[in-house]
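User: My collaborator and I are trying to settle a disagreement about how two of our proteins should look. Neither of us wants to argue from intuition anymore, so we agreed to look at predicted structures for both before our next call. Could you fold the first one, then the second, and keep them clearly separated?

Assistant: That sounds like a sensible way to settle it. I'll keep them separate. The first protein:
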Amino acid sequence: MPVDTARMTKVFSRPQSLTEAHFTYCPGCHHGLITRIIGQTIDELGIAERTIGIAPVGCAVFAYLWYRCDALQVAHGRASAVATGLKRARPDRIVFSYQGDGDFASIGTAESIHAANRGENITVIFVNNQIYGMTGGEMAPTTLVSQRTTTTPEGRDPATTGYPIRFSELLAQLDAPVYITRQALYDTRRIMDCTKAIKKAFQNQVDGKGYSLVEILSTCPTNWHMSPLQANEHVATTVTKVFPLGDLVNKGA
């Protein structure tokens, strides 16, 4: 049956802050959705002309191609340090870093902790998919106990490799951060909650409140060897038991 296009209503458009460049993410992962939500947030706040994004080494390595704003590609783990320098040099700019769990919670551990401890007025998007996605599926600091990776083919053993790090809980013990939250994207409600959290984290910076971190539990169907549907269910039923959702710090809410 032919589609009556005259009666169709357009309900969604590409955010103006996103370019026409194609994402290089694997099909079914949540990175594309996160990238889109950030673009939508930049549009809604009207801050594109003064926003600077920082691309990591990781799955979002080409983020500087996808946003219609200034952006930098930085060395692995150094995004929080570079964001600090940018914000201090140009306090009128809105600076955000986009970092995976290997980048933010492993290679960049020191930079991440000290930027938070100083209360730098930046926005950090921390994507936690419990694995090194881009480099071949190795164990990350957030890999679950018994989870199989290319470097733990029989599953992560706490006796030799420790336990998954709850990095948001670690940073929540510091005095300076104004907003730390953990969100997910496995269903419509969680997408809406995550969208609100990202907007709040950017708004905090616009208002000069200080350090904001949004951790997002993401899927990695390719390296988890799951379908996108299975990966969503895994996050909802298993990952959230180790990394509970919700706000850990929300000052002045």
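The second protein, kept apart from the first:
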Amino acid sequence: MKTLSPEEARQHLLAEEKAAICVEGSIDLRQTKLSSIACRLQCNDLDLSGTPIESLPKSLKVRSRLTLDNCTSLQRLPKGLTCGSLSLRGCVFIDRLPEQLSTWFLNASGCPRLSSWPKEATIRNGNVNLRNCVEIRELPGWLGPLGQLDLGGCVNLHALPEGLQVSGWIDIGGSGIQSLPKSLANSPLRWRSVPITHQIAFEPDKITAKQVLDERNAELRRVMIERMGYLKFANDVEAKELDRDTDAGGQRQLLKIDIDEDEPLVGLVCNCPSTNRQYFLRVPPQMQTCHQAAAWMAGFDDPKRYRPVIET
């Protein structure tokens, strides 16, 4: 096995030469046209971000970081893949992780098809980021212990396995999780990166308008309003009506709520024509009329150009 410099190895890989190569360093192939790896390769770090790589060879050995961000042609990873850190951000066709995977850190954020876990694998001691992995419905029992776990946007994930241990925080913002197992009862929580309490996470019906208005942290206050529900918050604080008219769903209102040390909260309250469900749709604070707000939501900068025949 030849020992090459990172640049020499880079040229071998781009030329798709068949060889056995060892590199004591990092190989950067970001944004190249590399679609396959023909050689047997060992290296410390390998970055293939943004390449049209379709698969990785079983012979690949990466001692530290393997970065495959935005490899949109990649569908499979080799069985037994071992590396210190694996990043798959934006790999939109990856739907499963390989059997016998072994890593400390996993970033699979923005992998909308990822849904299947291997029966046997090791991901422990580091951090796992599964943000916006909308097809994930469960986590495997072998996962962890972990340092941090980001499950933001995992809308189809409703429960976590008993026995899972996370020493740092768990982000559940926008996920389907409504409670934690006993093993995570004392774990700090986040909502889209904002630290929150267990009440905000799991008892939003107990949040009061006074609690929201008394909260000095603007980011946390916005999360509390989201969890409480914009419409309920607007009703509880008796929001100021800026405008009123009617559309296909019936009467609609443009409401404004002034908040200390933050921009006003302005929203269009309207009914869905098919379900009659009422919504509070947040719009920029400079909106003055219901029509202007509806036009903005439809993508019109000039409200005069927004003339819907049928609204659904």
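Some points you might bring to the call about the second protein. The mean pLDDT is 94. The radius of gyration is 25 Å.
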